[in-house]
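REVIEWER CHECKLIST
Item 1: Sequence provided? yes
Item 2: Single chain? yes
Item 3: Sequence as submitted:
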Amino acid sequence: MSDAPLLAIRDLTVSYPAGAGAGAGAVRVVDGVSLDLAPGEFLGIVGESGSGKTQLLLSLLGLNAPGAELTGSARYRGAELIGAPERALARVRGARIGIIFQDPMTALNPYLTIGAQLTEAVRHHHRIGRREARRRALELLDAVHVPEPRERFAQHPHELSGGMRQRIVIAMTLLCEPDIVLADEPTTALDVTVQAQILALLRDLRERTRAALILVTHDLGVIAEIADRVAVMYAGRIVEQASAERLFAHASHPYTEGLRRSIVDVDGSLPVRLEGIPGNPPDPAALPPGCAFAPRCPYAFERCRIERPPLEEAAPGHTRACFHPGPLGERAP
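Item 4: Structure as written out by the authors:
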């Protein structure tokens, strides 16, 4: 069916064994996440460090650290990824679902040339010769605005700037023409100017390719203008989800409101006073009872501290996990 999601995640949980002395049980770093991704859609996943964003992405490709226990479902074109045999996942990784890691230096092999790393995966997955692989790689390096691609082809990662390395990682991810690209904070290690260039590149490549993209970031401002839909994660759960336009205009979870107030409005008048979210994200091994955000929430009341709010519809296409009954800015009873 044409309306079927390209990727359907249902009640996905990722747990790790509790450390010695921490008591019995396991620590949930992703807790019952459900998401759909449509063909060609740009989905942003936002949350502070430790909210479970990266673990969610890694679970789709079976790349979680040893000891991880995964439950739930993630179906790509109807095929189950969670618990799939390694051979089946190897056919999906890179070829059908590509991933861009946040640190381009560690994503590239320092001992191999850029050309060798670019052509390895496409030759393996597409079964093409060295000459054709080189042609495709040079063409894509030009598409991601790498200057003098033939020279870069023979260089090693340490000879290139951080922004150039990230462009090459993006080219490497797109070379096999995947259906889905997972981008794990791809601008974090870059300065502000290069960040803007990489985001513009992703926006441009989205227009050129038919790939869907999941962009993970801690910065709501990063996806303000390029995401179709946004899911906000806190303590391993999705606490709000809506179209990007609606989320920025009508945020209805206090955590989302806090993230929104902590970004600079470039159209506003200066000076700008940024408002941070008080407190720190909770330890996933010691979550408070009730709503995990309640200790930091200015609107929390008694029910929030003893009962965990379910993710429910706040408006058509807009869900949130919050008991606050009225518009944010008004105190709950």
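Item 5: Key structural point noted by reviewer: The first strand starts at residue 7 and ends at 17.
Item 6: Recommendation: ____
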